[in-house]
Amino acid sequence: MTNTTETFTANPNDYIDSVTVFGETKKTIISKNFKGGKINTLFGKTVLDFACAGIKGMAVVDISEAFSETIILVPEDWRVETDKTLILATFEDKRSISAQHIDTNKVLILTGFSIFASIKIVRGM
Prior knowledge:
Layout: E1 15-21, E2 24-28, E3 36-42, E4 45-49, E5 57-66, E6 69-74, E7 79-87, E8 90-93, E9 106-115, E10 118-123
């Protein structure tokens, strides 16, 4: 008798996981079915470029940062929602968005906390 066990894991390109301490990280996400991930930054900077990525439904990125900056480049048609705790921190969506360009099937949700930090959403190419 033969036992066969198969394990199916998600495509690692569909998720991001990043830890930066006293440094800078730049990530370009090319997944056409991005699902989410975790970003942890302490005394550093993280740049996430989603200009060539795609979302089907919702993707959740948990961003925890202290004394740091996070810049996120997203396509014009993505909706970005936040459920973050900000303590002496800022969140800015610098895109000029028209309601007619937003695709309700492409939602990026940002969670986590920011302490003495900033998050900027800018338009990807």
